[in-house]
Amino acid sequence: MKTSIRNPPQALAAALAILSRGELVAFPTETVYGLGADAGSERAVRRVYQVKARPPDDPLIVHVCDALQAREYAGDFPAAAVILAERFWPGPLTLVLRRGARISPAVSAGLDTVAIRAPSHPVARELLSRFGRPLAAPSANRFGHTSPTTAQHVLAELAGFIPLIIDGGPCGIGVESTVLDLCDDGARILRPGAVTPEMIADTLRRAGLAAKVTMADRHAGDQIGGWKSPGMMVRHYAPQTPAYRFAAAQGPRVRRWLARQPADFHMALLCFPDCPVLDQRERRIILPPEASACARRLYAALRQADELACSAILVQLPENTDGLWTAILDRITRAAPELPP
Ligand code: AMP
Ligand code: MG
User: Which of 240, 262, 317, 325 has the highest count of CB atoms within 10 angstroms of its CB?
Assistant: First the structure.
């Protein structure tokens, strides 16, 4: 199959025809590029799993126009969902709610819950409003790989597997949405993103709702709270080249590790301007020291590092862990295991 990259608005008519036939279209969102399928078509949803080589127990996020449409597809829409959707939709917040009867169990990987969000990217919004029904759309990459933040990244992942990629330029946020579970009492963050726990707690508090927001333990393994949320897998978002992470304070460990490498070793070094490592065998890629710029750049930088085809990629962890840095730290941690001692 030939995969074409086309610009909106011309691409939209073609995209609608393709989606209506039960085939897939990659489209831009403000977080990362999504691989869209008619969420009401079991065949289309199965094709998403097949194209991504995604395990069948890893549920997809359902994208909707707005809260009104979300209400039609969720089993219930609790007060916290109303308030949070009002404040953060359209935007990078996914709500995990009870699954309604109109959502195919295939979308939810058989769970009785469904993850829903309304994206803010104008192309995604136009596509959703003209399609008129929800689109199931995971990140448009092969399973476990780095998520795409440009149309060219999608092409590198899925050329030959899908007919159309809508090019909406680079994604503004660059890391996946915050996933917030509202199914049990309280609000629990399953995946950190641009909407932070503080922003969520603050919004709930102002509305007079209980404002306790907890963070799921991302490193407890796949099994969280009795049900599986496979986006929590410890290894994910990974480049092809062996990649390792290190903290600024671990300069001596990095130097010891480098001293043990063979003569032909060379590495891509993804680091902040304050990096403690300097090595003749490095190809340096600087990450911006400001959080939103860093999030926007992170996946493209990982891909760039991969393309250098070095022996290894070393990624420096940010020192700051607040706000959006939590999401950046989370993605680096899962793309790259800790450097061996
Ligand atoms: P992606 O679409 O690639 O951004 O991944 C979506 C992620 O959302 C999954 O891997 C899960 O972590 C999470 N997710 C989707 N649906 C559910 C659900 N029903 N319950 C919990 N987590 C979900
Ligand atoms: Mg993904």
Answer: 317
Ligand 2 centre to CA of 15 (Å) is: 21
Pocket lining: 96 vs ligand 1, CB cutoff 6 Å:
yes
Three-state SS string across 85-126, please?
A: HHHHCCCCEEEEEEECCCCCCCCCCCCCEEEEECCCCHHHHH
Domain that holds residue 260: 243-335
pTM confidence score: 0.95
Give residue 72 CA to ligand 2 midpoint distance, Å.
25
Q: Give distance in angstroms: CA of 95 to centre of ligand 1.
A: 10
Digit-coded pLDDT (tens) for 98-151: 999 888 889 999 899 999 999 999 999 999 999 999 999 999 999 999 999 999
Same domain, 59 and 88: yes
Please give the distance, rounded to the nearest whole angstrom, from the Cα atom of residue 279 to the centre of ligand 2.
Answer: 33
Q: Are residues 35 and 113 in the same domain?
A: yes
The sign one gets for the Cα dihedral 27, 33, 38, 39 is: negative
Residue with tokens 């209506």: 20
Nearest ligand to the CA atom of 31? 1
| Pocket of ligand 1 contains residue 140 by CB under 6 Å | no
CATH assignment of the domain containing 132: 3.90.870.10
Please report which confidence band the pLDDT of residue 221 belongs to, taking 50, 70 and 90 as the band edges. very low
Residues 6+ positions from 308 with CB-CB distance below 8 Å: 268, 283
